[in-house]
Amino acid sequence: MEPKIITYKPEFKQRFIDLNTAWLEEYFFVEQHDKDVFNNAEEVILKPGGEIFFCLLDDEVVGTVAMQKVNDEVIEMAKLAVDKKHQGKKLGNLLVETCIDFAKTHHYKTLMLVSSTKLDVALNLYRKYGFKETPLDETDYHRADIQMELYL
Q: What pLDDT sits at residue 129?
C-alpha cells in the first residue's frame, strides 16, 4: 500500500473540504474565509495557477494540500490535512515535499504558509523542511498567528 500523489480532480473536491473541516473543527472552527475557499476552490486556487494535491492510499483520499499563488515569486502552501486514522505514516512529509517540488518546478522564489502556534506537529514538520518564521503579514484567518517561509 504505497501512497500516491495526484493533482486535483473535481470528484475529490468534497474530500478536500472534509479533511480540512475535520482538523479545523478539532482545533479551531471553520471560518468564513475557509468556506469561501472551499466553495470556490477552482476559482481561488486553480485558475490563478495553483494546485490541489491529493494523497491516495489504495484509491482512498487520505490527505490533501493546496498551493495558492500569491504573486509571480511567492506561492502559499495551504489547507494541509491528513486523515486522523492515517497520521503518523509520513503522509504529511510526502505532501510537503510535493509542494516544494511544485514551487521549484514553477520557479517560485518563496514558499510561504500561515499557521497557528497551537499546531506543534505541523510547525515541527515545516521546520524539518527548512521553513523559517517571518513576520506575519495581514491574513484573512483569525487563527493564524505565525507565518513561515522557505526560500527556494
A: 98
